[in-house]
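Hi D.,

Good news: the full-assembly prediction came through. Inputs first.
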Amino acid sequence: MLAAIGVPSVDALFDRQIPEAVRLRRPLKLPAGRGEQEVFAHLGELAAKNVSAEDELSFLGAGMYDHYVPALIDMLMGRSEFLTPYTPYQPEISQGGLQVMFEYQTAISELTALPVANASVYEGPSAVAAAGYLAKLHNGAKRFVVSAGLHPHSIQTLRTQAHGYGMEVVEVPLTTGSAGDAPGAGGGVTDPDAWAGAIDGDTSAAIFAQPNFYGAVEDAEALSAAAKSAGQPVVVAQVDPITLGILAPPGECGVDVAVGEGQALGNRLDFGGPSFGLFAAREEYLRRMPGRIAGETTDVDGRRGFVLTLQTREQHIRREKATSNICTAQALNALAGVVYLTWLGRQGIVELGELLLARTHYAREQLAALDGVERLHEQPVVREFALRLDADVSAVRRRCAAQGVNPGADLQALTGREEDHGGLLVAITEQRSRADIDRLVEVLGEAVAAVRGGEDASGLSSRVESPRVESNEAQTVPA
Amino acid sequence: MSAIAELPLQRDHATTIFQKGAPGRRAFMCPELDVPAVDPEQLLPERYRRVRPPRLPEVSEPEIVRHYVGISKRNFDLDSGFYPLGSCTMKHNPRLHERVAALPGHARLHPLQDPERAQGALELMWNLQGALAEISGLPHVSLQPSAGSHGELAGVLLTRAYHEDRGETRHKVLTPDTAHGTNPATVTMAGLEVVKVATNAAGGVDIEDLRAKADRDVACLMLTNPNTLGLFDPNITEIAEIVHGVGATLYYDGANLNAVMGISRPGDMGFDIVHFNLHKSFTQPHGGGGPGSGPIAVSDRIAPYLPVPVIVRDQDGAFDLDHEPEGAGSKSIGRLRGFQGNYGCFVRSYAYICSLGGDGLKDASEAAVLNANYLLARLRDKNAHSPVAEYLPLAYGELCMHEFVLSGGPMKRTLQIKTLDLAKRLLDFGFHPPTVYFPLLVEEALMVEPTETETKETLDAFAEAIGAILREAAEDPEIARQAPYTTPVRRLDEVHAAKHPVIRETLG
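Then the structure:
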């Protein structure tokens, strides 16, 4: 090969192209390579240091959920034909991937009752930021109004990006519980007056979550209508796709753009990713949507086929005038999503929703009946709900962990809000049976009682904070 | 002659899953209701309820399997054949990585698990950060960005935060005219303005043009090195001096890192910020368009602005996630997405780095550069009866790094076939075509990246196929112009698709 090239050595290829001043004349400080079996063992040891949803009874949710992933998804995602190609730039040999995108878009469009969907964005919170950017391109207005019921990661991600292009993010609080039957009286939902008051002619997008971060089902139709009578914002809802078998879909509630975290649809937890972000909208936003879109067409012989379409929105064609910089997204995870929705089917998504509704209701009733535990709000919930503990949440969680139960997420640790002190966010999936819920009730009840009784938190000493090692410098992979 | 066999079934009209099945057919069996039944109206009042269920398919499990296995066969993939897609680094995806990523300790780990009970995951991420820091020569790493373009956005926002913190407002970002499209698109998304820098006759940055445009309004220069022409810019040190001289930062688009692992480091070249593409250099399978992962590494002066959360380690060796480094006075740009990033990709790429080690990574880059130069030499070999040198000249330079760019201009003028025709005819030979029509400054560009994965035999076969297509075109250009012939569908009407978009199935 060297003779064909006409150089004496591989080194010469580099010597002739890279200035000596920037050559690395020493080996990389990384451990020596290892064989497959040893690497498998090493990765297995690391896995064993984690407590996964397989190792404890987990009620963690707050954005990602331990739903059952059917075996056929593992099989299909592992197929070389789906796993190993690049983005389908050559449609004649990419009909499989393009058709999956087209079917996925159809499924998301059906689920959200919105006419157009793209082929996926990265994940939930960045999908919210992408919707904000679409609104900015659409109307050029000054600020985003967001409900405090949006996932805190979504609000933070939107803030990060909005700061870049100079837009303000205004947060609308949730209602606190009060007597009476007025909308939002049970607390835990977007304050309707504050919402309407925050939105005006300078509002680019009005963004809420359904159900919201606290598990509460919002009156989506009322929020959309109020937003549109107060200004002309793009109304954006972050939806939880697995609830859309039973919850009124965003397209029927006046929502313009629906985004969401797709993990619950056939994707693993994977410590937070990869999953996919869903993105659907009304027709008028089609040409401002980010990401890949597959479209139907015919070939020269008249056969039906699929291509990447509306590419003049995209970075590789429009460069600085593109509607987004996104390139690689989440095609394989979106495949899992559409296969999962197909597996659930038309009846299954309703049945699953009803089951989650019933079990979640049961869990909420049982837990709220415990001493020192109350509902954080009274709104209807589908598969997640917020409680308030009259005890230190981290101490309670540690005690539960010692019993092999993860009772849910520490609300205040996630939102940083004073009013969330004592908050616990509990998620129920179809993998948590009544017996599992009863076990949670028992363990949480004991833990709350013990912590309120002043017993040492869990009998485990809390971790002592030590000075930090601040960077990775000189940190190498252990052999 | 083709890897894609001409099977009648594959040429059938494409029927979507929504057109299959029958009412009431299903795969899913819902777990039984084991809690007391409650009046649905009490649980979810009518006004919140969905009236008509979404019209999802009604199919059995065997139908689902047959459908998706069937359409999968209408895809070409890396496991089936040569995939020299320039700038995409289509290297082999070891199946060990899929196995370790599927271990329940990784795959079923909740992202909000308490750090003390996710020590293995944090250790893995810490180790991966350390490896990426060493490979790039930049000490501080964030794994959070979801893909290369997301890493670019992080990088430009970091640059912005750095200047703002120094009380400076800088609104221009320089990008060479050879840059990936994501670079200028990212600059706009970050609220800054793109200024193009010209390319010189040798294919590198035009130093005089850079000098003229580098002023105190410039926040950053985004550069790919080796660049999209497959050339290492020999003036990189001078470029860095010019950029730093006006107080701007230097950003490294890591799409082409596969050329220089263990050979030259962006940090040593003077870059302040680099993004990696784990789905390119570090063999996360591309999945037909993702998932990817786009970690960033930065120099000391950029570190205070890194996205949150950051992984920290205490003196006892325990790992934690810090959501507010430096407390309330945090200079972090904030969050870029939910949770900690695409961990499943970290597992795969970490396994890859463990398998290869430092020497193996260097070997990979050496083999990638050797393969590219060998293929280039084969294509230009006048003694091997190859008409390539005449019709498809190398756009710039003599040697290349891990990829090279040919110009199809002479081919178009002499043989009357375009680069697109050549690409489509390659499909009939069982090869994925190179990247075409990029970079934009090369006429009828053809960008070839063979990667270290390929054998000499594969490279020879590809060179022979190109030669055969050119000879065939000299006889009858119509063959290439009408190609492909053996694929599940032939050329598709993209103009119609864009003019009359049909982007979902019509349901009855």
